[in-house]
Amino acid sequence: MIASDDPDYDSARKLFNAMIDKRPRLIAQCVDAADVIAAINVAREAGLDVAVRCGAHNGPGLGSVDDGLVIDLSALRGVIVDPNARIAHVLGGTLLGEVDHAAQAFGARRAFRDHFHYRRRRADTRRRRGPHDAQARAVTSGTGVRTS
Description:
The protein is of the alpha/beta class. The protein has helices at residues 9-13, 33-46, 96-104, 111-129, and strands spanning 2-3, 26-29, 50-53, 69-72, 79-82, 87-90, 138-141, 144-147. The protein folds into 2 domains: 2-72, Uridine Diphospho-n-acetylenolpyruvylglucosamine Reductase, domain 2, CATH 3.30.43.10; 95-147, no CATH class.
C-alpha cells in the first residue's frame, strides 16, 4: 500500500489525463488476485470508497478517487486466447494493443479496431438520423466484430 506520505505517492497517483488531480488516501499496486482481495478488505474495514485503475487511460479520471483507495491493476497484464471457443481471457491491467497482439496469432488481426469503428460509425449515424433510426448491428466473426 502506498500512502500520501510515501515518496512514490505522486507518481503512483498520476493519471493519463493530467487535468484530473485526485488524491487517494491509499493506493494498492496489485500483482495478483490475493493483492486485490486484500485491498478490498482494507477498503471495507476502513469504510473507504474504491476506484479501480486498469491501464490508466481513462479520460474522465474514474480510475482514481479522492480520500479513498485506488486498486491499481496496471501490473496485472496478460492474455490467454482460446481459439476454439473464440474467447480471450484478459487480466485487468492489460492494454488493448496487448490483446490485439495476442489475438493476431489466431487470425483475429483487427478485433478492437473493427469494434471501435462500428461504435463510431453507429454514433455518427445516430447523430445524423436520430437515436431510433440507426439500423446497424454487430456480428461476431473469427476476426473480431464487423457491422452489417
